[in-house]
Design brief:
Layout lengths: L2 H7 L5 H7 L6 H9 L6 H7 L4 H32 L10 H45 L3 H15 L9 H32 L1 H14 L4 H15 L11 H27 L3 H9 L4 H39 L4 H11 L2 H32 L7
Length: 382
């Protein structure tokens, strides 16, 4: 037997091949997917679990952990030093320890309010059951009017909600709902207008001055106008707890400051489509809708999502300011009301809110980045 020819036909002895022989899974597709979704931080952990170049992955994990940890350590040192020197007669910058204590207090307050809410709901349910029992007795006695009244009382008790102060988690929820409404409204307005401007040069020329004029306007300047519009067009019902006028005024401010990046990127994305593709579509006599869905939107999606990502970031930043002035019970109002207390404890709570705003904004950006990467066509091969 010719051993030399046999050796040349054996597969290459790579680390990946060796681990496949040992029964390990191939980490490359998972790591590639994590990188594509903007979660490349976790890719070395997957490769390390599969035994793919352990020393290299361990070194990368140490770099990913130690460098941010060192930066955070320097930041907290600077913060602690600044807290000792930046003081006024009534208030000072809180230390990291005071901020952590404030966060723990906010969590305890939220837990206490949740317990009070559950207790209140339980009491209302007991009263409702008592009135339902009364209604059953009245119905059995043939007193239909009293039975109907008792049922109405039971329903009224079930419709009551605990009227305690909003917790920090409630304000985060309100802010997320507000920015979602504003961002969705901005998307529904900006993308169609951007497509029209991208397909028609004359529409772009006509609308470009308006875009350039209104794009730099602060959401605070839009707020009085939104107040008039929402007050004139929307009348909240008496049992509306969340969707009051303040929420839609704030959402309107978010919409008006966040639609411009999406509109501009959509217009340039559509205008940058290869004209040969559109010419082929005309030769094939594709309908306008077919051209839009099969050629225009797929080609422009990367830039559209870039605009959406920018719009969401602008909207989240503008939301805090609009919440303050519109008195929408979100994070902006929390920061403003807490600031009015004028104490170091209040400043510690504001620091917690600043971190929460930044972390939520980061996750919103990561979500949009992942969606953007999913609709792009580069780097598809694994």
């Amino acid at each position: 037997m010719n051993t030399s020819s046999t050796a040349t036909t054996m597969p290459e002895d790579t680390p990946q091949r060796r681990f496949q022989w040992r029964g390990w899974f191939n980490p490359s597709p998972i790591a590639h997917s994590l990188n594509k979704l903007g979660l490349g931080f976790f890719a070395p952990y997957v490769r390390l679990a599969a035994g793919d170049e352990p020393q290299k992955q361990a070194r990368q994990i140490l770099i990913d952990l130690l460098l941010p940890a060192a930066a955070l350590f320097v930041f907290f040192l600077f913060w602690s030093a600044a807290a000792k020197f930046v003081r006024t007669e009534s208030v000072s910058i809180p230390t990291p320890g005071q901020a952590l204590k404030a966060w723990q207090g906010m969590k305890e307050f939220a837990a206490l309010e949740a317990a009070k809410g559950a207790d209140f709901a339980g009491k209302m349910e007991k009263l409702a059951e008592q009135w339902e029992a009364q209604a059953a007795k009245f119905a059995a006695a043939g007193e239909t009017a009293k039975a109907a009244t008792a049922r109405e009382r039971a329903q009224s008790y079930r419709g009551k909600h605990y009227a305690g102060p909003p917790t920090f988690y409630d304000q985060i929820q309100t802010s997320l709902i507000t920015v979602s409404i504003g961002f969705l409204a901005a998307t529904l307005v900006a993308i169609p207008i951007g497509i029209i401007c991208g397909l028609n040069r004359y529409c772009f020329i006509a609308l470009n001055p308006l875009v350039q004029i209104f794009k730099p306007v602060s959401p605070l300047a839009w707020l009085p106008i939104m107040f008039v519009v929402v007050t004139a067009l929307y009348e909240p019902s008496a049992d509306t707890k969340l969707f009051g006028r303040a929420l839609f005024i704030s959402a309107g401010g978010v919409m008006l400051c966040s639609l411009w990046p999406t509109l501009i990127n959509t217009a340039f994305g559509v205008a940058g489509i290869d004209k040969d593709h559109l010419n082929v579509a005309r030769v094939l006599k594709l309908s306008w809708w077919k051209q839009l869905t099969a050629i225009v939107l797929p080609s422009a999606l990367p830039l559209i999502f870039t605009g959406l990502r920018l719009s969401l970031g602008v909207g989240w930043m503008g939301l805090i300011a609009t919440d303050m002035l519109a008195q929408n019970p979100g994070l902006g109002k929390f920061v403003w009301d807490t600031f009015q207390n004028g104490s170091t404890e209040s400043m510690a709570q504001i620091v917690v809110a600043v971190f929460a705003i930044g972390i939520i904004g980061f996750f919103l950006d990561r979500i949009m980045f992942a969606l953007q990467r999913l609709v792009t066509f580069e780097d598809r091969a694994i």
